């Protein structure tokens, strides 16, 4: 099964130093490495934009941009945005606060039958309402 990787997981791997990671964070990076080796990672343009935003130097930006180019963006269509809005409304009606990027990730994963790999705890709340599948580190 393909895995849609959230910004939080990519960020641990690409924007943090390994020695600064907690054991749980290092486990996320290890799992992402395995998913990449297996060819199962998927990314959307919005996640790419989030990862490239806030980079302090143009050299760091360019290095990260080149690394991310190895992962093509999943095409997003009108129905994906409509589904994301519907999921957002569903969560909010049940008292769960959401973000626009998170709901787009959930919509894409749901409609394609993928799981989401994230270190963002908000997705645990979404899972209870939306029935999304969360990918967990295997080690």
What does this structure look like?
With 139 residues, the protein is α/β, with parallel strands linked by helices. It has one domain (3-134): 5'-nuclease (Rossmann fold, 3-Layer(aba) Sandwich), CATH 3.40.50.1010. Helix content is 58%, strand content 7%. The chain has seven helices and four strands. A four-stranded parallel β-sheet has the order 2-1-3-4. Helix 1 crosses helix 2 (23-38). It is globular. The chain starts with a strand and ends in a 5-residue tail after the last strand. The model has no long low-confidence stretch (mean pLDDT 95).
Q: How are the secondary structure elements laid out?
A:
Blueprint: E1 3-5, H1 7-14, H2 23-38, E2 41-42, H3 45-52, H4 58-68, H5 78-93, H6 100-112, E3 115-117, H7 122-130, E4 133-134
Helix pairs in contact: 1-2, 5-6
Number of helices: 7
- Proportion of residues in extended strands: 5-15%
Name of the CATH architecture:
3-Layer(aba) Sandwich
The secondary-structure class comes to alpha/beta
Q: Under the CATH scheme, which class?
A: Alpha Beta
The oligomerization state is single chain
Helix content: 55-70%
Shape: globular
**Could you describe the largest sheet, including whether it forms a barrel?**
4 strands, parallel
- Please write the string of helix (H) and strand (E) elements: EHHEHHHHEHE
Spatial order of strands in the largest sheet: 2-1-3-4
Total DSSP E strands: 4
CATH superfamily: 5'-nuclease
Query: What's the structural domain tally?
Result: 1
Report the end-to-end length measured between terminal Cα atoms: 18 Å
Please mark out the parts with pLDDT under 50 across 5 or more consecutive residues, or reply none: none
Average pLDDT reading: 95
The value of Rg in angstroms is: 15 Å
Remind me, CATH topology? Rossmann fold
């Amino acid at each position: 099964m393909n895995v849609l990787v959230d910004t939080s997981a990519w960020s641990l791997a690409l924007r943090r130093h390994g020695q600064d990671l907690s054991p749980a964070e290092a486990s996320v990076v290890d799992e992402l490495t395995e998913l990449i080796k297996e060819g199962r990672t998927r990314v959307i343009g919005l996640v790419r934009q989030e990862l490239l935003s806030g980079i302090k130097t143009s050299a760091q930006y360019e290095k990260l941009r080149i690394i991310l180019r190895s992962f093509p963006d999943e095409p997003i269509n009108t129905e994906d945005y409509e589904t994301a809005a519907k999921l957002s409304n569903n969560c909010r009606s049940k008292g769960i606060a959401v973000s626009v990027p998170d709901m787009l990730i959930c919509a894409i994963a749901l409609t394609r039958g993928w799981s989401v790999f994230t270190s963002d705890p908000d997705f645990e709340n979404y899972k209870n309402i939306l029935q999304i599948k969360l990918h967990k580190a295997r080690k």
